[in-house]
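pasting for the record
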Amino acid sequence: MSAPVTIDARAAVRRQIGGVERVAIELSERLPALAPGRYAVARPPRALAHRAGHAWEQVVLPLRARGSKLVYCPANLAPAADRRAVVVVHDLAPLRHPEWYGRAYAAWQRALLPVIARRARHLVAVSEFGRRELVELLGIDPARVTVIPDGVGERFRPGAPKPTALELPRPYVLAVGTRIARKNLAALDAAARMLRARGIDLVAAGAGRAYMRAEREPPARPLGYVAERDLPGLYANAEALVMPSVYEGFGLPCLEAMAAGTPVVAADRAALPETTGGAALLADPEDPEAFAAALERLLDDAELRDRLTSAGLARARELTWDRAARATDELLGRLLAEDAPGGA
């Protein structure tokens, strides 16, 4: 007998892990552990994790999910014709800013996302900002969208040892994210000059992806893609995390840095004020001097650093992957109950 819910774990088998992949990994592991018997996990071969897997997701996944009442899709996309889909929409960046992506990818997303969003059984946004985007851009009924914030894992903690695999001989300020124009790392020019004068490096973790348009060479020293095992220590030993993004549906690096006891300077845009919940210093990402001034204030003010570190640890305790899994299981359970004989 099929499980009531099939989980689309296509994004969970990718080699390089960003925010979308992290959600897919965490939920495809935690949901079956939370409610054994309710979930079946459908994983394609790793060769089908990216573009080659579109056909798997559109054709094979619905066949794998025969007999399931719902198909939980945690990574933006879903079988377009399947009205059982419960889809996590992380953001609508390809619709808001197609210029940040390759032409074929932007066209695919702009064609498919609206169809998926309108046909899906239910949508999950990772922030209230994301919910507003769905309502404003696609005309989705707010009642069809549930907000379930992303979480942070137990391995992110203060005191994690500095990764020996990375060359970090001096104090450093960290930026984390895929190399794409919306991350706005070029706005850190003034911050990089200020840090150099103080003997502090500005380093950036993250690689580009073929379907994303990279910005001009940022002022940070690139670390490239950092292995999962090295991330906790990379966060925990940074003087601060900077996130000058102009558009984020959530902003997971902010939460991971907070859990590691590292204070955060983030953009005052999109979902970042919501995600950081008053536990970060916010600045205008389109004003490089103002962003640098905010970072300098953080470095100079020990009381401010201590306050933000404590507030960040408290914020991270509020938003865990266990919490996200429980909220997701509750939503899916409610939808299943609606389908049961005599359901609401």
